[in-house]
Fold these 2 entries.
Entry 1:
Amino acid sequence: MGFLTLLWLIPALGALVAALAPSRNASRAWALLVSGAGLLYSAWLLLPYGRGAGALRLEEIGRGSWLGIRYRMGVDGLSLPLIWLSAFLIVVALLSSRRDFSKGYWASFLALEAGLFGVFSAQNLFYFYLFWEAALIPMFFIIGLWGSEGRVAAAFKFILYTFLGSLALLVGLIYLVVVHHGATGIWTWDIPELARSPIAGPASIWIFAAILIGFAVKIPVLPLHHWLPDAHTEAPAAGSILLAGAMLKMGVYGLLRVLIPVFPDLSAAALPWLGGLGAANVVYGALCAMAQKDLKRLVAYTSISHLGFCLVGLFSLTSEGIAGAALVMVNHGLSTGGLFLLVGMLYDRAHRRGVSDFGDLASGAPYFAFFFAFILLSSIGLPGLNGFVGEMMSLAGMARVHWPLAAAGLGGTVLAAAYALPAYHQVFWAPAGPGSVTAKVTDMEAGERALLWALSAVILFLGLYPRPLLELMRPAVTTLAGRL
Amino acid sequence: MNALALWINLALVAGLVAVLSSASLLLGPQRRAAGAKGQPYETGMSPLEPAAGRMTVSYYRFAVLFVIFDIDLALLLPWVLMRDRLSLGAVAAFSLFLGLVALTLAYLWRKGALEFS
Amino acid sequence: MTSLLVLTAGLLWLVAMGLAGRSGKAQSARAVAVFAILLATLCLAPTGEAADGLLRQDGFSACWQLIFLLAALPLAMLMPMEDESSAILLLGSLAGMSLLASANHLILLFIGLESMSLPGYLLVYRLNRGRDSLEAAIKYFFMGSAAAALYLFGASLYYGATGSLALAPAGPSSFRLEFSLALMAVAALLKIGAVPLHFWLPDVYEASAPELAGFFSTAFKAAGILFLLRLLQLPPVLSEGMQLALPWISAVTMTVGNFLALRQSSLARLLAYSSIAHVGYLLLGVWAWTRDGRPLPGSILLYLAAYLFMSTGAFAALRLSGLKRWEQLRGYGARSPWLAGFMALMLLSLASIPPTGGFLAKFFIFWDALRAQGAGWVWVAAFNSLVGIGYYFSWIKAMAFDPADEQAAPPAPKLSLRQQGLLWGCAVPTLFLGVWPGVHTWLTALLGAAR
């Protein structure tokens, strides 16, 4: 059994054990242990890349092959950061969860981790889809069982929307393989093989559209985004962290790994449309965020806005843009994950999330004020923190091919300040209103502070010195951009 | 094209059902029989109740048993007539069949199916 | 053939037991039935032609017989038994199916079909006595008789047109021949409950004991599909006509089944409509096969096998939990977590979520249909799967998320070891069929054995 099988198998089996554990505490301890091991393991996988290793480093191919379906896993510079990000966020999410959650809670997160690892390391479309779906079910239960008041409706909306995307993806992928077989006479589900001989003809447009819809629901791209605000708002804090931090990335990663390599020509042809959708995402998400009165919903809308940058960068189809998009994925995971973490901590204390429920928090809870400011600034792209680099690279990539779209995206960064700062002002500085719950908010405990220090350290490091990450991604990005 | 024929056929199936179920209404003599002519048996006896009335369910059990043995007999008759020219295998086969029928009858008897109650 | 003899021997043994009239018959009758089924399973093999070519036992037959026997096992284990008569009916039905699978002649096909169905009608009332089940049994009987009449009429016309009743490609096409084949195909569609010939099905499934409904939905449907496939192997005429008609029938069947399932409040009825929808997907696979003329792919068999485990499991869970109506589901996950978890797994499989057999089965059906240039029909099926998510996940939602309603639901059952074994016997294959994609290739090879 190879390294990459262990990567997803450990959390998968871990989930089983956590579900069967004798008590809640044992289940929690076990889940922390397994997710901690996952974090160390993913960091260990990253290590060789620090020394500038080649493109697709680790690969593992199973023995059996049936009509092109074979077990093939592989990681490169694009997937490893996301694997590490998922592992990191799982640890953060579990550490920040209350201790009294039931066994199913801990097991669900481990199952989710297995799905995420699988998606980010599958090189065969069949297994890619298998893990893709396997990641959905735990999230359905996380939202529906442990979320807030509107959880059931939100979980249902989540599953229906994501399933719409999944089915489009499934049909698209099978059709792709069938058409590829018709053209070449070879049955293959391997992504590299399919990318080597791109298909053409009238059917390819349909396939492109179907696969695009499959990924777009997940990202989410504008007309298909409706599930996101509800799901993020109603999920428990840990669920929101992973939903925004890791699961949305599955969609972007799909575009990067499957859609663009397999359909280089169609992607180029669709550039203005998809880049335009990305810019629309940026602006629309920011405008919606400005109108929100609920902190969690606000953060949810900022996700739509930030993932717009990913699209803008990706569909510039330049190496800067693609690298920028890949960077945005990681950074957005860190900063939005951090924001959800903070909002969750506030909610745990005050049981409110409204912006106007708070006021003058800074005087009573200075740590909250500090970390909130720090992560919020990273999220809206303050130079020096991590958000800035990726967004600028994405926009720079787009500016080279289609400057009006880049300009629109740039407008989005200005809007980001317009939604983030007033909300921050209200919560932390403005005098507390009559119904305020500020008094209930005690400042952070040592454990919580440690968690946020760790997160902030990563954010600061990637903001000041993104080079190792960029170096890590470079070979894969160059290969991808070179093929276009 | 043959596919067209299939559709025609399916339409015919539907049509056939409609025709068969309405045929007696359309084709049958519209008699307005009265008096003795309208009676089912020309014996002069008036029926005690309508012919379509209910009968006790035990009657059907015997009716089914009757049909079974009726058919049994119909199968037995040619076998008896051909007895000179049959091979041993055919005799064995039919004995097996008769044995099964006898066994079933014994089972039913045992279960009380032959008691009219 | 050996397995057919084993089943008949078991049948005779049970009759002898009834004649001897010993006490404690119910338990020993169950034991005999289970033993006969297991032994018959061990005797399955493609042995070739027998009885002057009237019977032909190929890989195709053996695979389907395996499905029949596996479907009968949970019924034999779960059904209430007063004496040996229910076991006799079950074995009789199984022997009929076995014969149906190896028949190589239209009359034997008919005998198999009828001796499969008649005990079924009786079991509907016998296992669950009441007004509803009596009505359902009679309704089922009349529908079955209508199918039989259509089939016999078709078969006699076929004999008139070709002068033969053998299951072999006939001579040149003629109107009479096509007409006879159309009649027989309609009979097959009625047996599997394809829309618009489905209306009897929900009533029967709802009124039957759940374990019997499970048997109907798996074994009887598999038999109906087999019947249809055998007919499609007759002359090329029917295949060509069917190529036009089948996708429409399939699309209408799955759409009607799914949309009506959305609105059910009786759980058995919901599963009945869901089974109609699954017949729709199966027919899509049958269509794909008629289109490209390859030997029968494993997809249809895989679908039936996956459906066997998930439908049996779902109905068995209904039987063991005693749940009947939607309201009783609320909060069931908290009351009986293991049974609810098992039910959720079966529902996920029915909804075709990986990694379950239901997913892989639908995956290969989609694949076949796309190979047969049926992208439009696949989109219809994909849309239907989304509709299916609606009710399967509502069910899971009701069990897992809704607050418990103590009065409404029956108490959590205490499962015996045998019952637990049965549930594991459904859950493990359901998962296994979902994680090993090679099963399709393997089944295709199995079907081709001793052809």
Entry 2:
Amino acid sequence: MIERRPILDFLSHVVLVLGVLIVFFPLYVAFVASTQTAEQSALSPLSLAPGGEFVNNYSTVLFKGAAGQVTAPPVLHMLWVSLATALIIAIGKISISMLSAFAIVYFRFPGRGLFFWMIFVTLMLPVEVRITPTYQVVSDLGMLNSYAGLSVPLIASATATFLFRQFFLTVPDELAEAARIDGAGPLRFLKDVLWPLSRTNVIALFVIMFIYGWNQYLWPLIIATDTSMYPIGIGIKTLISGGDSAVEWNLVMATMILAMLPPGLVVVVMQKWFVKGLVDSEK
Amino acid sequence: MAAIHLKQVRKTYGAGAKAVDVIHGIDAEIADGEFIVMVGPSGCGKSTLLRMVAGLEEISSGQIVIGDRVVNDLEPKERDIAMVFQNYALYPHMTVYQNMAYGLKIQGLSKSEIDARVQRAAAILELGALLERTPRQLSGGQRQRVAMGRAIVRKPAVFLFDEPLSNLDAKLRVQMRLEIQKLHASLRTTSLYVTHDQVEAMTLGQRMIVMNRGVAEQIGTPAEVYARPATTFVASFIGSPPMNLLQGKLTGDGASFEVSKGNASETLRLPQPLAAAAGQERILGVRPEHLLPILDGSAAQLSLEVELVEALGAELLVHARCGEQALVLRCPANVQVRTGQRIGASFGAGDVHWFDVKSTKRLG
């Protein structure tokens, strides 16, 4: 649709700018608060001018850890825990779902339809629903307070399997046959043909799954009892103490800003391919 | 280089009561270096048979022998074949060079050997300037050439073509047809070529297998198949426009043939009496080009009413009616006929084909 209407252009820009302002204002407030002293950040109304404590606040949370309800480890360590689990979850989800979709689409084995539907049905069972039995299993296996415990139960993914299956079904059969005649075995075909063809899908999935893993809250909350295994999401919560002691809002805000950076970075860096993967149907 | 033997090859889908036979026992011997075309209407099983030779479909029973090996249980890569697909099936993310080199890379050939083979194939197919492009940057004809290049570099014993030209436009198809002929003339590799286009079958094949409903109706050189079709199916499938087939009965003296269709019946005089078959029901076939129009009312063997005249430039196709039976005549462009005219027609004794009514097989 190409229309030249200056008033419409102007109006739509106004709407866009308003939308951006509404989204960014809280982020700005958080940033401003993170550069002030604890007293300044507790004032109401909050000053909207940045303060002079930027370096001090950030180095405190990053390396020393702020004192809250529970003494949390330094943010740098929590960022590392979050990054590791999010990466294991994203990469694990992609590898497992790609392999299972490959099996379902390209191999004829008894119960193929049944397995597909079983995977599909698990879509109806999110972590929250199966959290008690899953906790029991993880705890019996001695995986509490470990990276495996934080990530492995979240790796199985019906959504990603389904997406890969749909993509593989659009790849012409002749391509698989040509590869067979060229002498490529199944895994070689997966690696040399399907993998490069599904690269944009993989990147889109990676972004979504990374953020999914990064934003986990409920699962780490019950699995990580040792503060050294706290991911950043839980870390923020521990900084906000209830009861008597004062909350150091400047440090809370600094931690939050730091927690938002990695997923933001992933989206910004990968958005070009991300959009392509979601929109592009051409192969 | 290898000969191919098909021995009672059958294909059945499903099992038990629901089993469907799609190939009903085909026997064929293809000599080393021969170019064989399998032709037939869609659904006749020709592609299935080709895919069985390639190893992409299982063989339900019978044997396929390539060279001196029974290949029934061999993987496609072990059969020493190369296949060109209808939709080319090029790897979309690889360049032309990589597409051709992929199979060789898997075979574990050295880089220099791969390069030599690819460069040579590219030279034969004039792809030299396109080696660094990806398939999506190529035209249909160029993609087809890359697909053939991918087959050539493997130096297989057998080339398999699955309707390779059907996605091309008419002009390009004629050009590629010539190139395939030249290619075969220089490489002399045994080739099996599947098509539904009888022109391709006639021009490309040294011999052809005409298939219908999973049965090989006739195997022979294009000239043989055209001159002596083994069944009415072959007679009507090969040749454009197809052979005129008239069902009727020979008169008591064997000198005339009574064509009856619907309520009308017309008698036509045979060029040579067939006393041996007097009184029998038969199908008579005459090719459109063997029916000579007679406009001056002199001794004609049958009389026709012209329904439609198609002028093709070099010749005329005259669609006419003999009683209720439709016929086509192929005449020189200078013949003066018009719609609605009554004309006569004659044909020579050697141009008559007789077929059995029940079995539709050729008689004599």
